[in-house]
Amino acid sequence: MQSDLSYQLLTLFRDGGFMMYPLILCSLLGLGVMIAKAWTLWVAHQESEGLLEEVEELSRRGNLEEAIEVAEETRGPVAAILLSGLRRLREEGHTGRDVQVAINSTGNIELDFLERGMTVLATIANVAPMLGFLGTVIGMIEAFAAIEQAGQVDPSLVAGGIKVALITTAAGLTIAVPVHIAYNFFVSRVDMLIEDMEEGTQAVLDLVWELEHGEESTAASNPGSSTDQS
Known about the structure:
Layout: H1 2-15, H2 20-48, H3 51-60, H4 64-72, H5 77-90, H6 96-114, H7 118-150, H8 155-221, H9 225-229
Helix pairs in contact: 2-7, 2-8, 3-4, 3-8, 4-5, 5-6, 5-8, 6-8, 7-8
């Protein structure tokens, strides 16, 4: 049964003509990108679940080093943003602006990583049907050339060209449809991770605000402490 299926696929590939080569290349490239992207986004989402609450709780309790260790041990863009902000927050003389610049830089890098490969999928989804339609045109040209050469309309003469046209069209659409679905799915997953990244950014900035205003409140509540001691 498996050998029959392999033979049929090889027969279709042969009957489809030379346009089947770029179509097969598109299918292999698209499949590889889809597998890699699915794994990357799945890991990023799984590792980020519950991380924000844990790191935020540790930071508010003053366990900044422990929060940094948790972020270091976690993969994903949310962990990278939290780690960047907390490390800058740990440095002496930091300001809220410094923390925000560090977070924005890390966020841009992580966003570029999340969107990597999406252009390839979008290109394949658009190009594969065009390659199939190009094969269709080539098949119809072959069919009419056979009619012209024979000087009469014979179904057996045009059958080969029409078969090429149908095979390449079907191959192009078969490749484009799942790639387009995968592209839209990955876009939605990336959008969800972007929202998580924004929550992580806001959590770190809120922590910076609380620390800075907490110090200001402490200083304001003891304005004459240094004078009294003197």
